[in-house]
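Appendix B, example 12.
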Amino acid sequence: MNKMDIAACQDSWSVRYLCTHMHQRLLFILLFLPHLLNAQTLHVAPTDSAVHLDGLLTEGIWQRAAVATGFIQNFPNDTAPAYNDTQVRMTFDATHLYVSVVCFDKNPEKRFIASSLKRDFEWDQNDNFTVYLDPFGDRINGFTFNVTPYGVEREGQMFNGERVASEWDNKWRSAVKVLPDRWQAEMAIPFKSFRYRKGAAWFLMNFARHDLKNNQRSNWRRVPIAYRPSALAFADTVRFSRPLPDPGPNVSLIPYVSSRYSDDLGDPGDLGGKRTFKQGIGFDAKIGVTPSLNLDLTVNPDFSNVEADQQVTNLSRFEIFYPERRQFFIENQDLFASFGFEQNRPFFSRRIGISYDTTTSVIVQNPLLYGARLSGKIGKDWRVGLLNTQTASQPDKGITGQNYTMAVLQRQIFGRSNISAILVNRQGIGALPDSMRYTRLAGLEYKLQTDDNRWSGKLFYTRAFRAAQPGEARNGVDIDQDAYTHGATLSYTSRNLTLTWTHEYVGQQYKINDVGFVNRRGFWRVLPELETTFYVPGNRKLISHGPFTDLMLIRNKDGRLTDREWNVGYNLQFRSTAEGGLGYYAYYTYLFFPYDPTNSDGRELPEGSGFATRGCFGYFNTDKRKLLNASVEGYAGGYFNGQNTSFTAQLQYRFQPYGALSVYSEYNNIRLPEPYKSAQYLLVGPRLDVTFSRKLFWSTTVQVNSQTDNTLLNTRLQWRYAPVSDLFVVYQENYFPGSLTSKNRALVLKLSYWFNV
């Protein structure tokens, strides 16, 4: 081939390359032209007439309002337009913000996916439309309002830039209409139901549609696939043609009355049980101190309507962390409950309201007399939180009252990051031994969040100040020398890579479990994690796949390795919404105290012994859109000086939209050599959820636990007879398995009503 031939070939290749890439660029521009043309601030004008919530969108304002459309997929392909179009319009008047949405549907023959008709549904288990609202423009905190094609509502507080606490409740209204080629909704959100700065003329907002039946998530403003659709980092400006009105005084009162009958029957053969009948009255109040600062009060609160914890088979050497479920403590959890790590919380609200009964040597519930929480914004970059609660004194049980206080001051810095200072104090009331008088903590925490969401993490330090326990002073123990903890975590997240580094130190004298949660002390922990995701565009079966690995190392203060956990595996995500994975583990455990691996009355492995184990694990979740779906996971391999085969499974049948019947089961077959004890544990938990309407809900859970030798029945009827106003009827009973002889039982009635003052 001569030089002219080579040049001709090069020119031909250049032309083909240029044409190919011009074609790709032209195709990209054509696909995104509607979105690019719409990539401007959404302007919202006030309505000049009443908006009637009927879902029909016949009001003139909806015909004139600017349209937010051109939704882009977040999943499974974040560079493609949404399969189904979505159109959003907004307006407002003196009291409400109105949002209307039209969700077009190219496949009306497919039914919408709905877990039930119950309010505060699980976002990823339902077709729905969502409003993400950041009134202060900090891209960290906000509010969310959701509605499904069945008219079910959900609202929540947003924190950490993308997380949603759906336990937050407030009054708002919506109406939905389903038509042959679409479903559409109108939402009326009172200005009093959320916080914003006085005279606000703009919000940061985004809209999301979860088109579950087509397995797509899409946003008005594009959110990359590596991040949740709720990520406020990608919200855009919504401008109002005139400043929003001052919402005025915002005071809500929620009184309640309750009655409780309980019957403690004791062990079989006891001569008699203890029957009690109690009546209660109390109230909650929400007071808007300023448009951005709220005071929550609770007096003589009653938490009897809170669902029972999901039991687990306890094979841990340490205390198990159970999440808070009581409404008063859940709100604003990013200010009060997110300091430290999950296994190292300086403040853990579940400590409030439990005490040690010295007459029976049993941990019991202790009434909470009152609680007060002040939280919100003070200025553009400052947030404040102040929580104070008081528990009752019961001299006949040897229980003294305790006062708990937590104060938080947070300053936003460097864009979306913030730094916080915390103070925690538990103060015993009355004449107490020196060791029970108080426990105090002080700490600093820095949370990192970059503008593009790629980097996130935290850095914290907390020190405890407590009264000496009996014997510590006599034994020369310096309780202040090592009474601190610090830790850091840093994550990098991109389209194909998630990389995380975590380290933590907990001092031996950091004894805070009367106010916080620390499951072990006197150790260093490091945990690097790596996950890679490869997306497969155009594949009809597979969306993504990729390997993952993590390695946890724990050493004591002397540098001795006490724990090593290495996991490596591979994940698969299917277009049908099914997902699964397989992996291999290699662990090492050194016992620094005697331990029975069955957590029963078996012979204990000796202190100072070490065990290296290995095995395999896996999981698989079927298509969650199917009426009948299942999830399974388990592992098999070494366990201390023996073997364990552990298997958990959940089977669910959805008779949508009215509820679901599910069965959760966990099985452990622990095989240890003689003379150590082997054990087989079975935990079975059937659950029935029925929503007769959007106002009447019934749930029943049975948990049979062979490890604790207990069967629990909990059934709860909830009638939401008015907005955020409920009647609860709750029955709970514990039985001995096999004979089903009752241990104790309780029946509770509770009625509450929400008044706007």
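The CA atoms of residues 592 and 607 lie 5 Å apart. The longest strand covers residues 274-290.
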